[in-house]
Amino acid sequence: MFETTYFPKAKKIWHMGEFLDWSDSMIHSQSHVIHYGNSVFEGIRAYKTSDGTAVFRLQDHIDRFFVSAEVLGMEVPFSNEEIIQIVIEVMKENKLESAYIRPLLFYSYGNLGLVPKASPVELVVSAWEWGAYLGEKAETGVNVCILPWKRIHHSQFNMKAKLGGLYTLSTIGGIYARNKGYDEGLYLNIEGRVSEGPGENLFIVKNGVLITNDVTESVLRGITRESILTIAEDQGISTSINPITKQDLFQADEVFFCGTAVEITSVVKVADESVPEEEREEYTIGSGKKGPVTERLTKIYHEIVCGKVPQYASWLTDVK
Question: Where are the domains of the chain?
């Protein structure tokens, strides 16, 4: 029996053409994905609007889903349009007004050689109600530490892809940060510049300019990240895509994480744990509180995802 303590309101999971009770779903212990992490996934959010429930940037997420599958050599057993409809059906079946949605493609039971020549690709789509990813502090700002390990390098694979196995590194970083008493970790890249969080892109604000880094700095080209860049430009906020050094981070007026799960969450303190044998230094970002640019972007972002800004209506897919 699988409890739903951490999956509020989850009732049904879609697996290869049928709905299963959440507690009845299972994968064989010798499935390829369990041993090698050979999966791809998306994290998508749906929000309650005045016209009902809508999924934010669903088409963009499923497009990236297919890019990820191609990177892992997967033949997807469903079309782009079919998966979009499956997501909608999962929302309806679970009667969710707002939700976090997780499509997952994986190599299943067949063989256990590194090449999954006899392991078919299967699709699971699930959804549940999920609040602030970084907890209550997401409202006021979180404390992070720079991790002692470097982010995987952009030269090693297509940084657009969300590959399940690579998130083992994110788990290691997240556990380390929390064991040290921080809310989240932050990776540097091989070159020693700021990369991203275990599951979040990063923005800084300096002298009114919104700055983020690119895939050449070993970051995922996140959909929320690209949404924020578009929103900022539409709002008349200057933007720049450039490398970010540790000093840029420490001296920033504002810093925030962004991503589907974390949405927009201000970073108010940073500790440098990148060289564990050296004395740790801690830095307060700006005033130590959520800054005005972050506040402004958070407000307009939530208005957009809740369907209150007609200009961005094309980013929303109705669940009807």
Answer: 12-128, 135-305
Residues in contact with 4: Cβ distance below 8 Å, sequence separation at least 6, in sequence order? 10, 22, 23, 128
**Range 135-305 has CATH code 3.20.10.10:** yes
Q: What share of the chain has pLDDT > 90, as a percent?
A: 90
Is residue 162 among the annotated active site residues?
yes
What pLDDT is stored for residue 1 in this prediction?
A: 63
Q: The whole model's pTM is what? A: 0.95
Query: Which pLDDT band, with edges at 50, 70 and 90, does 48 fall under?
Result: very high
Rounded CA gap, 155 and 277, in Å?
29
Catalytic residue among 11, 12, 150, 162: 162
Fold classification of 12-128 (topology level): D-amino Acid Aminotransferase; Chain A, domain 1 (3.30.470)
How far is the C-alpha of 245 from the C-alpha of 149, rounded, in Å? 16
3-state secondary structure the chain: CCCCCCCCCCCEEEECCEEEEHHHCCCCCCCHHHHHCCEEECCEEEEEECCEEEEECHHHHHHHHHHHHHHCCCCCCCCHHHHHHHHHHHHHHCCCCCEEEEEEEEECCCCCCCCCCCCCEEEEEEEECCCCCCHHHHHCCEEEEEEEEECCCCCCCCCCCCEHHHHHHHHHHHHHHHHCCCCEEEEECCCCCECCCCCCEEEEEECCEEEECCHHHCCCCCHHHHHHHHHHHHCCCCEEECCCCHHHHHCCCEEEEEECCCEEEEEEEEEECCCCCCCCEEEECCCCCCCHHHHHHHHHHHHHHCCCCHHHHHHEEECC
Hey, do 12-128 and 135-305 end up sharing a CATH topology, with the first three levels equal? no
| Residue 142 predicted with pLDDT over 80 | yes
